[in-house]
Records
---
Amino acid sequence: MKVLIVGSGGREHAIAYSVAKSDKVDKIYCAPGNAGIAELAECTPIGAMEFDKIVAFAKEKEIDLVIVGMDDPLVGGLVDELEAAGIRAFGPRKNAAILEGSKAFSKDLMKKYNIPTAGYENFEDPDEALAYLKTAKFPIVLKADGLALGKGVLICGTYEEAEAGVKTIMVDKQFGTSGNTMVVEEFMTGREVSVLSFVDGNTVKTMTSAQDHKRAGDGDTGLNTGGMGTFSPSPFYTKEVEEFCGKYIYQATVDAMKAEGRPFKGIIFFGLMLTEEGPKVLEYNARFGDPEAQVVLPRMKNDIVEVMEACVDGTLDKIDLQFEDNAAVCVVLASDGYPVKYDKGLPVTGLEEFRKHDGYYCFHAGTKFDGEQIVTNGGRVLGVTAKGRDLKEARANAYAATEWVKFDNKYMRHDIGKAIDEA
């Protein structure tokens, strides 16, 4: 088979790593890719939103399967355009990707089908939102309706903070048109858990659990980011939690989308909050998490291409999804100043060390070639992942491996999985 992966981040590198292990695949392409993906795939300088060029490239190269890694092209309808051209694609169509593309849609879906989530209201008028917030209980959560690179969520402790948040999202449009509608949501407390799942329109098969660290600084301080690190599995995701979610959240969501005439094929990422009242949905994503994919996929035993084809063909019920009985931790190496302002073009060294050690991975997120030299090309530069017999060992291995990599202004959190390590 020939496979084309669409995207350029650490998630797409993790997908390419898994695809490269498949006996079914002879050739991998990536659009646009990065310096790390280039070791596994032939990268082509086509942007993820250049749909016409992607379709033409897939036809020219006689691609057997296109894997769309990123949210923007999924929500924009890339899968629809590929299928219309007779090209097999893994990922939800536009009318199903709305599950991530509109938080207002997903909240209304959960309400309609009794899927556990936080109480909420949707607003299109900032004055109406402010009037509602005057009567609200704090802290409270404000969410831009559309895609915002994982940064469109504000937790407000006071009315004054919420007033500023409404201005940021709805008036100043800091997240662009994503802020045309805003969700005001009850603040939930508890442990967060991420569960990625394969879906074929009817059947849902969940992967091993993970947990992300969103804030830029140690101790969950600082600005929200795309994710500063993650670990898998979550010790808080018990058998009882899994059974509850399987019945009232996972299958219920797939069935709800089908009932709405929006059958979902691809990846549903369930962001969960384990509250005192039981598990509730924080958010849905319509693709692999980043950096969750970097700890989940290295632990998967199955041939990923076989699983993805089963999702496309509607035969996922015949797949026995299996994961290694171990743990993995990913520490993101960022450029200092992320997620606001940071330098690019800084030389990266030490990457060859990862080829010498089994169970250690370096997934490229923001890198490119400057001649023969790999340099930084984004806020999140690399995801250093390591396995271990348990989370404590995996964490120690991952942090040891971060020392192999050198670049100016290297920044990372030092507490990824620490609470678990100390538990």
---
Amino acid sequence: MSQSGPDTSEQQEQGAYQPQRYQPGAYAKEHIRITPTILADGRQFFYLDDDPEYVSGAKTRQLKDPRPLADRFSPGVDADGNPIKVQAPQMRRDPLTGDWIPMATARMNRPITAGPGATATGNPLAARKPGDPYQDGEVPDTDYDVVIFENRFPSMMQVPGVEPTTTYVDGNHLWPMREANGRCEVVCFDPDENSLPAQLPVKRLRTVVEAWAFRTAELSALDGIEQVFPFENHGQEIGVSLAHPHGQIYSYPFIPPRMEAELKQSQAYAERTGGNLLQDILQAELKAGERIIMRNHSWVAYVPAAARWPLEVHVAPVRDGILSIDQLDDQERWDLAQMYSTLLKRGNAFFDKGDGKGMDLPYIAAWHQAPVQDPRRANYRLNLQFFSFRRAANKVKYLAGSESGMAAWISDTTPEKIAARFHELGAVDISAEGE
């Protein structure tokens, strides 16, 4: 059992990562370098560098993780010292809704560095500090551009050699139970733990977009994965436990409930009309015009006509037929980085505290991609759903009885008012910005 991570000098000499399914475009081939390594406990880790010195190979990354961590798949021991199998997450199916509910008890031990419940003072997502003794951080180097690694405290995990097997809670067929045989990854956007995603340059966000495309392609190739979901939680009020600019990618071994509902609607629409529901929604929003808040060469951002949240924006590609992020071309990836940057900045300016400075908006950015294997994927379309539960500078929307108890949303505003506020913050056509 390795205690300090395998020797990966051969990988370093080989240079660029050799992917299974990911196909970099012209820009990524010339300006982004992917360097893989393995952390001390066996988890995969990737550097995505956009610094020319690393891209050219003039500089190379530190690839050895010096922490004395046990292999994550090694057997544990119980209170009496008897060996037990690795305690992987499980999932149970709710017979009332049909939803699979992952259960990961190890997440109770994860470090929390943000908010009143903080349990750790260090930041495991930050790079090592030169000259300091190595602490329990996840990045083996003293700096980085963008990094991706498997979550140390995953909600879902694939254990080698363990095939998902359906059993039943208490032996009762009402409650199917299986291994939560998915995967959870972390994407760190920048080494500066005090920076905000809205402050990152468009070039860095372009590397983040490449990270989403890279992992979408590679994770879609894993056995048993049904849905790849890149997302970003931002802000203590959202429940973010680590204060660092980062996002996550969940790879589910099932179709999650929100996607299942959207697939049912889009499939029924296709059977009824022969059209693509998401494409027709985009065209209808463009025709109405009032709720369009931004557009550039490749993307359109709008407040949906039936918005749930007090601040909600959907972002869709102009080109039809795009099912997932890895299908975007170079121009679309650059335009997405530009639009995402502008959206974050305007989101921070949306609520006025009276000083004209806006605020650090708590938000969730959720990428809705076509499922990996489900045949209904052909009638879906890539889209980003961005929202915040803040409804004023000093108020949040609580999901109370109707929302939490019945999933019946009641909005405190109208989509037209949300769009009108965005119109006050900048021009709809942003094509020339950042060029």
---
Amino acid sequence: MTEAVDARPRVVLGVGGGIAAYKACEVLRRLTESGHAVRVVPTEGALNFVGAATFEALSGQPVHAGVFSDVPSVQHVKLGQEADLVVVAPATANLLAKAAHGLADDLLTNTLLTARCPVLLVPAMHTEMWEHPATQANVALLRARGVVVAEPASGRLTGKDTGKGRLPDPAEIVDLARLLLERPDALPRDMEGLHVAVSAGGTREPLDPVRFLGNRSSGRQGFALARVAAQRGARVTLVAAHTADLAPPAGVEVERVGSAAELRDAMHWVAKDADVVVMAAAVADFRPVDLAEHKIKKSDRDPDPVRLTRNPDILVELVGARRAGQVVVGFAAETGDGQGDVLDYGRAKLRRKGCDWLVVNAVGDGKAFEVEDNAGWLLSATGAETALPHGSKARLASAVWDSVIRTSRG
């Protein structure tokens, strides 16, 4: 009987010897549950933090750290040759140095030398170690060779220290891994020197201290745009309205807002020195005229009608305030009807808004809102139209940035 071929994407998950090694268990769980075949290759240092039995139980694969384990199968060569992606999380300063200079004294560093697939290194270390000139030189060397070295997050480190060097959230690491499997060239360092302002999430317009008018936006697409831009080298400011408890993207400055008025003020402020402005937030078109000071009580009589007034069109305002050379990108969530399809309404909105680019998403029936994937069209003010194929929201973000960069770098 012919043995069945495992068609799942093959991922090698390297784990360095840092305290953040415990988070690799969550990365592993998310990868396996999303349909990937994962082989964990820890360093000896990593096994001081998480035992091999834990990685074996979560992956269903044997775990070795040295090159003299399972010698007949030549694992130190085979793993890298057969992998579709190698992810190292956490990547310590020591691991980055070894990878940069081709040292191979264990199974993981040998795997890095034999891999010809995309490689994603996710650093985690104290701020001083990350900022040291030796580490920065190693990172620059690796990136010049085409290795994706992710930007670390900022936050609580070991002990009482806080700063840049924290391992990004496991969900973010998996998003980046999936993006590189979908599109290996999705994260070039081509946005260095650019300041990008992105809005995300749905605004909430208060009716009383308890209730509000809102929408179904989760904020995932805006966060993906911010995340991908940061990993491509941009300085990113993310203005986040209500989101689905999303962790802040690594390397991104986040400002939280609630209502459309708050988002409007924040976007005008950050847009002043931004090279690219992206309005991905789902802004409420209307808000209640009256805000009740106390909770509106339920009674036997019918409630009073809620009077609404129109919110300002923030995208149109940003277009009107656009500086020379600044690129403005809008988003449009549309449904077709008897008068036209999604693209018809998208084209009309692009003309009405006056932005440089408009991303059009078909919504409803499990599309765009509150889901992991997305698809749509990218419309240009020049008349060009590009289909954005179905895939992760990070993949759609990378396609949008490709077009925007060609415009802004012009």
---
Amino acid sequence: MAANQLWRWRGLTLQAEERYGTLWAPNRPEALVSLQQQGITALTLRRCTVRAAYWQTNWRCEIIEQLATLLHAGLTLSDGLEMLARQHPIAQWQALLGTLSQRLAEGVSLSDGLRQWPEAFPPLYLAMIRTGEITGKLDICCRALAQQQKSQQAMTQKVKKALRYPCIILLLAIAVVVAMLGFVLPEFTAIYRTFNTPLPVLTQVVMNMADAVKLHYGLIALFLTLPFLPGIILKNNPRWQRLQARVALSLPVMGNLVRGQMLSHIFTVLSLTQSAGIAFLKGLETVEETVTQPLWREVISRLHHDISQGSPIWQAMENSQVFTPLCIQLVRTGEASGALDQMLQNLSDYHSEKTHQLAENLTSLLEPMLLVVTGAIIGTLVVAMYLPIFHLGDAISGAG
């Protein structure tokens, strides 16, 4: 797909009917040849911009779910893709679905057709659709995949919201404090210093802080942004990403949140692949392909290696030291009873529900705490500013 370009065309059919649409082609001549093969004479052909933001989970989930509905209703796969292409509002998805429909008409399987579009369809989609093609249950696999992706996306958004909220509030509080110390308090300082009267200790301390902010605002800004610089500079460095993951897992509350989210994703994919008839080791390979964090990819890779060497699944999980005792116990029970797929589903549901609840509890707990802290800081500054006003009357009387 990286070599392809998106083209919007308008042309005439052999019956002189005007048509328009979009297609993928490496260059203009290839696009013209593709239109000629469809019996269309191009009148206009221009290249369009491809937006990476449109290759989002919600779009592909919607397409897969709609495709499952059309297949369940009795439509062929090619007709279903063509119908989805006609009604989709985004040009690059229209062209993609139309291309898939043409490839299917040429005898190419859907999983092989999706393999050429890794930005739009991650490996999990390929594995599930390939399994659906093998088992003859493509509509069921597509619907289960769409539900899993929607649930995972909702949980990811909730976790990000729970972690993002306190950071935003703290940054706003810091910005307000710096603005008051750097711009508001100096004006009050100029007024108070015209009177020859001692200031309260709190006011004097705050004024000294305001003077320091005014003199060293550059260093203070650098100090505040310094903790974020490594994350910006080294965000694509695997070692830095591993360090971030280890630090996040070691934190008391955030660690449980991050661990729960990753375990939910791992067991959801494993449960999905197991229910679709994919072998456990192959399911682990699918999990590794869908995990982007280097630390967790290493965990899954080590897990795959230990199991392929003959270790029980529960023993390999215990050796990794990232799975909870509940995970190990239920997997061990599932291996012994032959109900591993059911245990994986139970673990997926448990970690998903627990992470949702933890995210909600974290948000509801942090909101009042941050409001109290922010109110206390700003309130202290306000009191420090207006406290000398009560003594100005005595100072003015003494001066008169």
